[in-house]
Amino acid sequence: MTELTELLGRLQSGDSDARDALFATAYPELHRLARARLRDGGRNTVLDTTSLVHESYLRFIRAGELRAEDRRAFFAYASQVMRHVVVNAARDRKAEKRGSGAQPVTLLTHVGADLAGDEGVILRVHEALEELQAVEPRLAQVAEMRYFGGYSEREIAEMLAVTERTVQRDWEKARAILAAALQ
Q: Domain boundaries in the chain?
């Protein structure tokens, strides 16, 4: 049993000190996960790696009970939380660009009306993933772990207890479905 799995067990048993120890132990991997998520640059210019990890940690705490039995489940959940942090940051930033409820004033009607920022892409991918989740949950999970989590096919295969080839097929299928949904 790994240290992380042991800490998850202690946390679920009600050990309040286990939560901080869990995140201290998982911090380097969470940081790597966040770096992979933000590595391509431009996907989200509001958050940096450390703030993404810290905001995710705060959401873990606010959520209360953490229901992850092992390392695999914990990092799958962490990937989902990071996805939601990024999506919410994109929504907030997009709302700021629209004036956050302020009355819009048009200065030039022909300039930049059709330009979509990174926030629009993030939100469209998020919505497409939600639709995919309803139809093909594993494909959505693979896509989420690749796109938002930055995991390799080998890592995803280990976490989902399937072969790398299955992950490759799922990733190809998910990309095709998502590409069609985004057009």
A: 1-70, 119-183
Which architecture characterizes domain 119-183 according to CATH? Orthogonal Bundle (1.10)
Cα 158 → chain centroid: 19
pLDDT (tens digit per residue) in 70-117? 777 787 788 788 878 877 877 777 776 655 555 544 433 333 344 345
User: 43-47 long-range CB contacts below 8 Å, 24 or more apart?
Assistant: 43/86, 43/118, 43/121, 43/122, 44/86, 44/89, 44/90, 44/118, 44/119, 44/122, 45/118, 46/89, 46/90, 46/92, 46/93, 47/85, 47/86, 47/89
How many CA within 13 A on the CB side of residue 160?
Answer: 25
